[in-house]
Amino acid sequence: xxxxxxxxxxxxxxxxxxxxxxxxxxxxxxxxxxxxxxxxxxxxxxxxxxxxxxxxxxxxxxxxxxxxxxxxxxxxxxxxxxxxxxxxxxxxxxxxxxxxxxxxxxxxxxxxxxxxxxxxxxxxxxxxxxxxxxxxxxxxxxxxxxxxxxxxxxxxxxxxxxxxxxxxxx
Length: 170
Description:
The protein has helices at 4-7, 34-41, 97-104, 114-127, 133-140, 150-160; strands at 13-19, 22-28, 60-63, 66-69, 82-84. The chain folds into 2 domains: 4-88, Ubiquitin-like (UB roll) (Roll); 97-160, Orthogonal Bundle (DNA polymerase, domain 1). The chain is of the alpha+beta class and 170 residues long.
């Protein structure tokens, strides 16, 4: 493995980052965002790049267990930290409880918002295994769904939380 100095490009810094449990040393420029590093340097394209302004939530990943917007998080801020992306949810071919609930409830329409939604829901349920409806809505308020699939998404969160599915609409 080349030493850090030989990996470093002019105007760049080497960061160490753990993504989905795998450690990486990556050369980044100060302006590189986390979403750029994930998609372009690590090939993890499940994290989407939507608005590039921190508004839509499609780029949500977990940084040290907290949901963050990867499009406005500088890669340098992630040095020495753990990042979990949508690729890190499933265990091999077995979907996570949240992923399975999204499928069961038809909460995946066009799918563009889905990775960010999955990460926000995962963070919520890891912190609060039995969230109330207002808590679910609060956790999802930074994630926009252009297909307006919110009822199915809320039902999926309730299923994943073990609350059963409560009809939101007739």
